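Researcher: Please translate sequence to structure tokens.
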Amino acid sequence: MAAETRNRKARAPRGHGKPQAQTLGFSVQAEDRPTLDELVDYFGGGNRSAYLRETYRVMRSIMLAEQMRDLQSYGQQRTAELGIESADVPDRIREFLKGKGNA
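Model: Translation complete:
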């Protein structure tokens, strides 16, 4: 029995080490189905999974852009409250970062 175990080849995991895809269910309103089908055909080549992968890449970039806008707005508000001119911001950041390195 030990010889049999040693002579067996180890099986490579399915997907060659890549995480396996999961099937998820979601619902779509009947009136939205034609639009979904059109988008799947155009962006996913008729493949819903390919369409969804493209969609979440786009939506993530939109999310990051919105977060950056919010951060920029916050930064502008804070610099105005503190009386800092926008032209002075890069120098102030450099000075702050130099101080961090010395701590």
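Researcher: Any highlights?
Model: Residues 29 and 89 are 49 Å apart (CA to CA).
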